[in-house]
Amino acid sequence: MGLYQEASIYICGLVVCAAFTVISPFYPKAAQSKGVPFWVTGVVFSLVPIFALLSSLVLGSFLYKLGRRTCFVSGIVLVGISNILISLIVFGDTASVIFFSFLSRILAGIGSAFSMTSGYAILTSENTEDVQKTVAKMEAFCGLGLIAGPLIGSGLFAAGGIFISFLLVGIILIIYAPLGGFLLGKTKPYVLSEDKINIIEILIKPKIMLDALCQACIMFTLGFIAPSLELHILNFDIEEEYVGVIYSVNTFTYALSCYLLSFVPQKYDKRIMMTLGLFMLSFAFLLIGPCPFLLPPEFWIVVSSLFFLGVGGAMIYVPSLPNMIDNAHKRYGYGKDDRLNDALSGITTFSLSFGEMCGPGTAGFMLSYLNFPESSTLIAIIIMTYFVIYLIGSDLLVKVAKPFKSKLAGEQALIELKTQDDE
Q1: Residue 401 pLDDT
Q2: CA spacing 20 to 30 A to 53: which of 105, 235, 262, 420?
Q3: Cα 395–chain centre separation
Q4: Nearby residues of 198 by Cβ (< 8 Å), 6 or more positions away
Q5: Amino acid 125: pLDDT
Q6: d(Cα 260, Cα 262) in Å, to the nearest integer?
Q7: Cα 79 to Cα 216: distance, rounded to the nearest angstrom
Q8: pLDDT under 50 in the chain at which residues?
Q9: 378 — alpha (psi -120 to 50), left (phi > 0) or beta?
Q10: What is the spatial distance between Cα 180 and Cα 116, in angstroms, rounded to a whole number?
């Protein structure tokens, strides 16, 4: 794969992710000032993953017919338009704010599914021997975008408010779309096998489903804090313009961790890394409240939780798609087929969108009955439960226990042999 092709996809990840996170620190309060109920804000944040989820299922099956390059460029344009639309909320009343917010997030969801699914499909098909390293690089750029979004948003918010922040990001995306398509150029012809590729049949394979739920956990945690963390941070008397900088702690550690994980050998057992990532996510949610039963309500503890969220998310995401590809080939007997890569890329987008969809809605519901520390503690318990499920379901526990079992069997054999000698 050429340098320009890779660069076009990496930059796409950067600008698309920046477009999403630029609204996270400031939209909740802006919507609240226009009379939008908090639960509606949660729905607004959920619309992106809902429509990305629906689009990814269709796209994963028909990407080879629609064309990867066409979907790639179209997706970037749609995300750009979505940001321009949401910039208009500063001029409207409650009803128009809700309308533009809904329309913007619907287009953003469809656009993100098109651009990211096609991008990952191209990367995994063109770099079959080094998928994990390629995914790690892509996520490092996505992480940079997640960092840039809140930081750029904070700067533009201070200079010109929400309208300027969202409008400029949208224009940049629309300008980049044709340039990205030009740099991408022509992709290689599809490699097809005799296998019947059905995205639903692949998704419900147990090992692939386990990895998909791990991916969902990442975006669930980010979706949970998106509409709620700003208000939680402001309770510590932090000035609003610093909220974006605090958000960037998570994204900076995520980007750096993804880059460092690109050096992990391809043959390393990916399940170990993913299991450790789940544990870190659970630990992070004990800190972000902080847990009222274990920790004092200190601001530095909340900030430290964002570090663990970033590292844990990277440890899950980087090996997850390569592990699904390995499972599809080795456990379920699929041959080399670019449609399989399309399907698994679609499943990845679906899983991330599912988690992101559930996160804001769960936050809105839980925070109606519990405070933030209690809610985050409950999320930590849920993630730890899945940590145990993954440890068992992925057969990692069997692998870890095998040496001890062999040693125990050997010791038992020696005891029996000694007993026979004594007799």
Answers
A1: 67
A2: 262
A3: 24
A4: 61, 343
A5: 78
A6: 5
A7: 22
A8: none
A9: alpha
A10: 13
How far lies 74's CA from each of 16, 91, 113, 270, 324, in Å? Answer: 12, 28, 10, 33, 27
Give residue 212's pLDDT: 93
Taking the CA atoms of 155, 157, 162 and 164 in sequence, report the sign of the dihedral they define. negative
- 25, 247 in Cβ contact below 8 A? yes
Show the domains of the chain with their CATH numbers.
Answer: 3-410 (1.20.1250.20)
pLDDT at 377: 92
At position 288, the amino acid (one-letter code) is I
pLDDT number for residue 407: 60
List the structure tokens of 338. Answer: 């670019």
**How far apart are alpha carbons 19 and 166 in whole angstroms?**
8
Sequence length of the chain is: 423
Token pair for 226: 């998106």
Closest CA to 164 of 79, 91, 259, 246: 91
**CA distance readout (Å), 261 to 123, 253, 272, 318:** 17, 12, 13, 7
Q: Which two tokens stand for residue 68?
A: 């990867």
User: Which has the closest alpha carbon to 342: 130, 112, 124?
Assistant: 124
- Residue 367 has which token pair? 């925070």
> pTM for the whole thing?
0.79
> Based on C-alpha coordinates, what's the Rg of the chain?
23
Owner of token pair 């057969």? 395
Q: What does the block give as tokens for 423?
A: 């007799």
